[in-house]
Automatic annotation (TrEMBL):
Signal peptide: none
Annotated GO MF terms: heme binding; iron ion binding; monooxygenase activity; oxidoreductase activity, acting on paired donors, with incorporation or reduction of molecular oxygen
Membrane topology (UniProt): Single-pass membrane protein
Segments crossing the lipid bilayer: 6-26, 486-508
Cofactor: heme
Species: Olea europaea subsp. europaea
Protein name: Cytochrome P450 71A6-like
Family, per entry: Belongs to the cytochrome P450 family.
Domain of life: Eukaryota
Length: 993
């Protein structure tokens, strides 16, 4: 499955840019007589980006051996000097430290860290000096670090107890170390006990997203003028969303600290236990008393805490993880360290920080680990603030400088046997990591050196000592250590660009139609075809193209021919007259992996398997009788939603969230027998479907350009898909096991299916499997695949249809009033609407039909594929051609609909037009063999929910917002949601009025 809303693909525009500037680029690059550092040959536009590789610290080290320890590379259009020697590092970070103390601007920290108002990313200047002064003197001074000693000692002891009490014979030490760092930093920075609860998990996921975005190729940072690509490919939207999440989180943290001053206390807050303020307390005190010459805005506090938490957790746990990894690889060194620790501890049960000064070998082990595995092998880039000379070479203003701390720490000129792990090299030597020895700079040096070294070392030394005192560690039987490291700077774009350049001429001569009469087609580009014309909103852009090229139009999505159908006649030909020929689905990597080889109903190839699965769905799961059997679920959950809105303390109601919650509640009970409470398990499932949606909208070269599927292995797409498939499989496995356990008398507290004796859909499928009610073998994977469809399709389209219907009613108050009158008249004196009442509400049905016409949830129906050569409306359609029906365009065809852009429910009164697939001018749920089998289920929910909302409330827009102001923007995707949430004021009224 692919969301054509996302097939805008930054790659596409980037490729075109390259093609047009290729010759121009070859003639540029004059050095104006300057003596620049040696540089590897560069390619047009991308410079040396293609040479950065998976592990840039290693690939840049390899290049430096050929081009020198001061080497100029071009990252796109940005010149960057790579420093790979201690002498050059000394020159940059000591002799000319001031000149090279700036940071290059970057979109991500500018947005997420409040215009880079923190210490790590901010530009050099007075603001940076003041913020650094606060950090060094107030937050990370030796005295302050010591004041949190009790936190480190308590949390390391708790980790030891956790390992000792573990029931598993195998310990995931990596997770333990991450948890330790989180525990300590949570208490020190925020004053919160880390319990792994939702709030902290949310913060962890936000920092993870920040890490992923940091490793995402951002054209605007490297090629001036291409920043617009970030708006198109979704990067800007992800950054803006993340910035909003972080801001809301830090705002909550700060408000809770201010509330504490008023005597209100968060149950997670432990800062008052020993009387020590946490870092937020200190910053708020500085703000209140104006102790700094800098005006400490709240945004600065948030930015500084961002640094404290981000840097304090990641590097601390990483350093410990590598140290323990090396000790496991070198048992003799580990034994020697254990002997030292145990000798110092003697008969004591606990190590304290006082003992650490008597452990020189412990310190040597950590130093050697930081040499071999510096947490940041490439230090954060600096930027020259003026023209300068370094080691005889000219460095221009604005040049980036990247210091390869990893390469310097492995320089054989400076270190004997540099690839060996040998802590003895640090005994009886003054070499330290504080930035004075430039052959060893794991934390940088100079003005831009890390100010948090004492804090990180205090944690790492104490944790390692306690681990060595209390345990003997060994690898699992028969296992060897994998020393691979994760790398983010993989830029699949680069390889793709190179491929384009080399095949450019070849592509120009391909594409003969071999005498066939093909549908009209817009001109295409080499390789990418018409992908560049798909746009952010493909249903709209393809409609616009069809007005020029015809209602049966051929476009090329990369190398894949696709016929776009934009007329009722064309749709009738595909979905009725030649339905069998066009009933196949194209293969795609994502559903094949996540949905068990596409064993479901939505993505399965046409054939006997699909027929049998569809038969089960239509006759057993989604029959009218089955849908009616869940009537009590719909009536209960819609009533609960009404109560929730009525009892809301807020004057503004987020109706979008309410409708999503309603859909989730109903589908959870019907499909898996669980009460939806928003708890971790269901939230996890929601996040998995969200990831599926994001991956569906990720450009997958292998699906469109044969031979490029290898790119997915390189850019991480395959890894994400495999991880998601594993998560889904574990989830469905748990669901099925719980249902089987129920048969044995064991019961999940969330499980409510036995309350009225109705089995849920999983029960039904397991019964079919057990009794072999079907003519084919219902494997467990098929059950999982079918439930995947039920949950995914049942929640998304149902809530979307309701959201758009209510949006249109708010834009048209007279229509809403007319609908309310009908509902109240049918309800009479009853307090509740039931499904029996719905058949007496023709205007309600007309409103929903009209909303589905104007806003079909899936505007481009899932693609079909021709199973043989055929002719459609006089044109030749070859086997394997994809067919995409633009249901949105057909429903707005002025030939079929009078004033098609107007919202007018009256057009559906006294007419037989329906959405069941018989009227091809109106196909919001498709038609034919591949039509949606869940229409009756979705409509039962939407009609009942809308009727109850109209009966119980008067809805108005927020004060100051008019019907004309209501934002109707769409969120691009397979299912087209409203971009902004629907915020309304709901006034409860008596149903008697």
């Amino acid at each position: 499955m692919i969301s054509f809303a996302y097939l805008i693909i930054p790659v596409v525009s980037f490729i075109l840019f390259i093609i047009f500037v290729f010759k121009w680029q070859l003639n540029t690059g004059s050095t104006s007589g300057k003596r620049l550092p040696p540089s590897p040959p560069k390619l047009p536009v991308i410079g040396n980006l293609h040479q950065v590789g998976l592990y840039p610290h290693r690939s840049l080290q390899a290049l430096s051996k050929r081009y020198g320890s001061l080497m100029l590379v071009h990252l796109g259009q940005v010149p960057a000097v790579i420093v790979s020697s201690a002498d050059a590092a000394r020159e940059i970070m000591k002799n000319q430290d001031l000149i090279f103390s700036n940071r290059p601007k970057s979109r991500l920290p500018d947005e997420v860290v409040y215009g880079a108002k923190d210490i790590a990313f901010t530009s050099y200047g007075e603001h940076w000096r003041q913020v650094r002064s606060i950090c060094v003197l107030q937050l990370l001074s030796t005295k302050r670090v010591q004041s949190f000693r009790h936190v480190r000692e308590e949390e390391t002891s708790l980790m030891i107890d956790k390992i000792r009490n573990s029931t598993s014979s195998l310990i995931n030490l990596s997770d333990m170390l991450v948890s330790l760092a989180n525990c300590i930093v949570c208490r020190v920075a925020l004053g919160w006990k880390y319990s792994g609860g939702d709030t902290i998990k949310k913060l962890e996921s936000m920092f993870k997203e920040f890490g992923e975005l940091s490793g995402t190729f951002n054209p605007g940072d490297y090629i001036p003028g291409l920043s617009w690509i970030n708006r198109v490919n979704g990067f800007d939207a992800r950054v803006a969303k993340l910035a909003k999440l972080f801001d809301e989180f830090w705002e909550r943290v700060i408000e809770e600290h201010r509330d504490r001053k008023k005597g209100e206390k968060n149950p997670n807050d432990i800062s008052n236990e020993v009387g020590e303020p946490d870092l937020v307390d200190i910053l708020l005190e500085i703000q209140r008393e104006n102790k700094s010459s800098l005006d400490i805005e709240t945004d600065i506090i948030k930015a500084v805490i961002f640094d404290m938490f981000g840097a304090g957790t990641d590097t601390t746990s990483t350093a410990l993880e590598w140290a323990l990894t090396e000790l496991l690889r070198h048992p003799k060194i580990m034994k020697k360290l254990q002997n030292e620790v145990r000798q110092v501890a003697r008969n004591k049960l606990e190590i304290t920080e006082d003992d650490l000064e008597k452990m020189p070998y412990l310190k040597a082990v950590i130093k050697e680990s930081l040499r071999v595995h510096p947490p940041l092998p490439l230090l954060l880039p600096r930027e020259a603030m003026q023209d300068s000379k370094v080691m005889g070479y000219d460095i221009g203003v604005g040049t980036r400088v990247i210091i390869n701390a990893w390469a310097i720490a492995r320089d054989p000129v400076l270190w004997k046997n540099p690839n060996d792990f040998n802590p003895e090299r640090f005994l009886n030597t003054g070499i330290d990591f504080k930035g004075l020895n430039f052959e060893y700079i794991p934390f940088g040096s100079g003005r831009r050196g890390c100010p948090g070294i004492p804090f990180a070392m205090a944690v790492d030394e104490l944790a390692l000592a306690k681990l060595m005192l209390n345990f003997n560690f060994m690898l699992p039987i028969g296992k060897e250590l994998n020393m691979s490291s994760l790398a983010y700077l993989i830029i699949p774009l680069v390889s793709f660009i190179l491929f384009i350049i080399f095949v450019f001429k070849w592509q120009l001569i391909t594409g003969s139609a071999a005498g066939k009469r093909l549908p009209p087609s817009p001109p295409k580009f080499p390789v990418i075809g018409n992908l560049h014309q798909v746009g952010l909103y493909p249903h709209r852009s393809l409609q616009a193209l069809s007005k020029r090229y015809g209602s049966l139009m051929l476009v090329h999505l990369g190398r894949v021919p696709a016929v776009i159908v934009s007329s009722a006649d064309g749709a009738r030909e595909i979905m009725k007259n030649q339905d069998v020929i066009f009933s196949n689905r194209p293969k795609s990597r994502l559903p094949d992996e996540v949905v068990y080889g596409s064993k479901d109903i939505a993505f399965a190839s046409y054939g006997e398997h699909w027929r049998q699965v569809r038969s089960i769905c239509v006759l057993q799961l989604l029959s009218n009788k089955r849908v009616q059997s869940f009537r009590y679920v719909r009536e209960e959950e819609t009533s609960l939603m009404i109560d929730k809105i009525r009892n809301s303390s807020s004057s503004l109601i987020n109706l979008s969230d309410m409708l999503v919650s309603l859909a989730n509640c109903i589908v959870c009970r019907v499909a898996v027998g669980w009460k939806y409470s928003g708890e971790d398990t269901i939230m996890k499932l929601e996040s998995m479907y969200k990831e599926f949606g994001e991956l569906s909208g990720t450009f997958n070269p292998g699906d469109y350009i044969p031979g490029l599927s290898w790119i997915n292995r390189v850019n991480g797409f395959d890894a994400r898909v495999s991880k998601l498939a594993k998560l889904f499989d574990e989830f469905w496995e748990r669901v099925i096991e719980e249902h089987r356990d129920r048969k044995k008398g064991e019961k999940n507290p969330n499980d409510i299916s036995n309350e009225v004796g109705e089995p849920d859909l999983v029960d039904i499928l397991l019964e079919i499997q057990k009794e072999n009610k079907s003519s084919f073998d219902v494997e467990t994977d098929i059950i999982k695949a079918v439930i995947f469809d039920m949950f995914g399709a049942g929640t998304d389209t149902t809530s979307t249809a309701l959201e758009w219907a209510l949006t249109e009613l708010l834009r048209h108050p007279k229509i809403m009033k007319k609908l309310q009158n009908e509902v109240k008249q049918v309800a009479g004196n009853k307090l509740e609407i039931t499904e029996d009442d719905l058949e007496k509400m023709p205007y309600l049905k007309a409103v929903i039909k009209e909303s589905l016409r104007v806003h079909p949830p899936v505007p481009l129906l899932l693609p079909r594929e021709a199973m043989q050569d055929t002719k459609v409306m006089g044109y030749d359609i070859g086997v394997g051609t994809r067919v995409i029906i633009n249901a949105w365009a057909i429903a707005r065809d002025p030939v079929l609909w009078k004033n098609p852009d107007d919202f007018n429910p009256e057009r559906f009164l006294n007419t037989g037009i329906d959405f069941k697939g018989l009227n091809f001018e109106y196909i919001p749920f498709g038609s034919g063999r591949r039509g949606c089998p869940g229409i009756s289920f979705a409509m039962a929910v939407d009609e009942l929910a809308l009727a109850k909302l109209m009966l119980n409330f008067n809805f108005t827009l927020p004060i100051g917002v008019t019907e004309r102001d209501l934002d109707m923007s769409e969120l691009s995707g397979i299912t087209v949601h409203k971009k902004l949430p629907l915020l309304v004021m709901a006034t409860s009224h008596s149903p008697y009025l």
